[in-house]
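Q: Two folds, back to back.
A: First:
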Amino acid sequence: MNCNPLSPTKWTAHPHTMVRWGGGGNKEATKTTGVPDYLQPYIENAAGSATDIYNSGDMSAVAGLTPEQKDAYQRKLELGKRGGMLDSLAADSYGAAGVYRDAAAGTGMYGEDALGKQITAMKETIGSAQQEQLGGLMGQASMGGGLGSARGDAMTGAALSKTGADIATGELAARRAGAMTGAGGVINSGSTIGGQLGAGVSATEGVGGALQQQNQNEADAAYQGISRLFGLYGAPAMGSKTVTNSSGGK
């Protein structure tokens, strides 16, 4: 019984119990106790089947890896292990990215001595260009009456130096641009190739995962069937069993 301040007697029956007051103070209590009698044999049979399934281990069956999954994992191992294809691609990309690191740190072909080294490396090319230029400069100085003068010699030297620096600067800029373009190509191609290699593996793994899930569904079929059967037995449409108790009183 539950206390109910709105009831004249301050007490009412439990929500699952219906109390009927009869003449002479008698009362009847009707209580739902479970499934109806006609359904009990079916429940017992289903329980027996469930026990058999449990004892056979089918309720704890786990689908193993499929051949497709094993193949995909083996390919992943081959690609990703030290010295494998992905490792080689990463090493190539890291090496190519050295030009970006040099540019950021001001080293290598971006160092302070880069132009001087370029001039030295192009000594013969620069010398040939300066030799051709010198003839023209001397002709101009002779026509202007400055040939052999200190001022004329200084101007000639400055012009020749500028020519050498311009040639070396242009070549260094071309090398830097080429190195940047080449590095970007190596890095991008490495990423593309790695993605293509991984795509095939992922596709195979995905198929294997789907097959494994189907295998698991088949392994769980008996358990799922029993679960649905018990759910059906517990549906309101199946009815319920009630028990009525009578007691006397004043």
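A: Second:
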Amino acid sequence: MKNSPLFLLAALVVSTASFAQTGTQADFRALHVDAGKVIGTIRSFQGVNGAPYPIMKGFPNLVQQYKELHIDIVRTHDSMGPTDIAAQYSLQNPLLTWLVPDSEQRSALVQAGNAAAIFPNWEADPEKPESYNFAPTDEVIQAIMASGAEVYFRIGRSFGADLTPLPDFDKFASVVRHTAMHYNQGWAKGFHDHIRYWEFWNEPDIFVFWNGAAQQLYTLYEKTVQALKSMDPSLLVGGDTVAFAMNEGPYREGFLDYCAAHQLSLDFFSWHTYADASADPYDAARIGREIRRLLDAKGFKKTRSILSEWNLSADFTDPEKPVLQGMQNAAFIGAAMIYLQDSPVDRAEFYRADAVWMGLFGMQGEYFKPAYTFRATGAMLATPERLRVTGTDTFGLAALAGRSRDGKTVQVLISNYERPAGFKPHMMDLPPELKKAAGQIDFSKVKMLTPRTDIAYRQNRGYELTIRNLPWGSDAFKVKRYRLTEKQDLALEGETSGSGGRLEMANPLPPPGLELLVLSRTK
């Protein structure tokens, strides 16, 4: 929806005690915040896929941008060679051709990817430092460290790598162990990066990353987790990163049952979701409850639940880029991240943040709209004492409030998302050569999250916000409003001042839109 001039005006009336809009707005939502009552701590969901280091020639280094967005953990999946334990790429691989249609760019990727795998020769001795090719991965890992983020190391292969069987599971586990030694214990002229998270594999339940039997995957996990824990028992090791998180089967229940029966450590269970079928920002929270229920029922009550890939859509092709880079996704992301606050999901890593495919940035490092959402959610971490907000819903109008530990700042983030009128489930059209492989999966038997049928949008053209019990009492304060819309890039929309321990404010904020309000004591 385009904003009319009326909707771009801030309706503020200043008094000694409050800001108030004259009259009422029937289509505005009433939101209330009690700044005197802390209900918990604002949790960070600033995790992403995609390192700030450019994975292909000509792409930008984004270390500074990651700092600006307060990205605090980076999953190394799909680095296209670097961080892959064992991966080989071929120019005619149909997955890679689909991902990188341009033959010249794909040829460069194949050459670079094949030169970057950590253990390139499976005839080599994993005990010897000279058997490893750490340099390309070193650059990726150290760029993540330079951005201030934690490394979440994905053990496996990137999208588009050839599905050649691993020749030796014991050797693979040994290579993973020595990789951890390199980055955590300085082995082979390495580092002391304190990488905690080691995630095993990626989406074995689809044809893209794993073509062996489920039992083989269990065995490979067993050997890998034992190898890592023998090197450092404090490492957090988990998996197995299912694509269909709601689907019962060998890579969900079967994997958990094997870990339980063999008393294998499972520090976290990771899973993915994209909202192609629903465009519903509440999906991740709903699936998170199902995953938590499953883990508890299987006896894994201390196992963390990690959403290691999520986005509005999984479609990486060019026609979908305007949606993924635009305001619709920015508002979707804002609502979804706020809803995760009250979910049993422990961590989340958005796919993806760099300048590749579905990323947050352009080729010159410029922000796309969703990047501004991450900047706003990151800003909320400066006021970690979470305050109760009433008046929101789970359909798209979401709000988060917090105050600083010193009581000098209060912030409110409002994200207003609405599913597009006439929405229909979105499915990527597979190239003909891939449809045969995809046909191995009987999608009629794959259990998906049932889309909600009760979504109704009401009073979501703006907000009437009341904040009471401001922590500085009757002292003077100032208010700054930053707005993200089709025309505004988290720009300062208004600034004013007041006193009296209370704020009343009403403003139009039609979907898709996002607003960050910052209240600070002036004395």
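Q: And?
A: DSSP finds twelve helices and 17 strands in the chain.
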